[in-house]
Sequence to fold (319 residues):
Amino acid sequence: MIERVRAGLGGQEGLAVGPGDDAAVIEIDGQVVVSVDSMVEGVHFPSGWKDPGDIAHRALAGALSDLAAMAAEPRTILIALGLPGGTEAGFLEGLADATVEAAGRFGVSVAGGDVVESPTLFLSVTVIGDLPGGRAPVTRSGAQPGDLVAVTGALGGSAAGLSILTGAEVPGLGPDLRDSLVSRYLRPTPLTALGVAFGEVGPTAMVDVSDGLVADLGHLASASSVSISIDADAVPIEPGVEAVADATGRDLVGFALSGGEDYELAMTVDPEQLEALVEMVESKGFTLSVIGRVGDGDGVEITSAGRSIEPPPGFEHSF
Fold:
């Protein structure tokens, strides 16, 4: 499998020494931005999932989204892969080929990794990037009272797609919308190029929406020692999510605010920078919606139609 990946990758820019030696040698100047993210069968995707392409794609996208939230340019990745004994050769080949394809699509080299026998299938992806022009990273800790709260794109699509994949029947949902929602879950796109652009026209703080909007903004509020108020009615919702919510008897607000794995970028913005930020985002073909404000205090408050509502919980691992 390792040889199949190496052969598929060929020569890669930015690596003085690539896969095949005891360690890789990476050509990066200035500050290095590093993160690691894991996808485990039965936790991050259903047990027995047969499509290795979706597994590899989701693992790489989730890890690279963390760099987007720091306004960092992704350069290379390392992959630790755990495989149960008896895994079929065709699955291994598919996973190797999908890893090469996803890395090429996302514009990163593969520096190496590790393959081990494991009771459960998992991929742990370490991402390494840098900060163009020596810029400072955009962290979670820069929000100030008076800032606006904004989010890119639309939310709830990934959670709705997972509901469809796990058997939800949604009458009246056309095939195009159904495929779009399923794709939001199976093949998310990390906003790496947009994240780098945010380093030029900077939010005061930023986080990617992986555990759910409320949970992730809670992390940002805690890091910045501020409170955040969100208007649930202003949160952009992916087309088709309302139909899935109605069909499953779930709360639409819950899909949008706690669904998770949308991999959009949520941020706080100096009001004086909002116009420039919106222009930059729209020039790149994306949208930016103002959904709240930063204040003194702590925690996240949600309002709808002027009334306070209980914040829905986001994803959290149980131990």
Remarks:
- DSSP finds ten helices and 13 strands in the chain.
- The mean pLDDT is 91.
- The domain at 2-134 is CATH 3.30.1330.10 (60s Ribosomal Protein L30; Chain: A;).
- The radius of gyration is 20 Å.
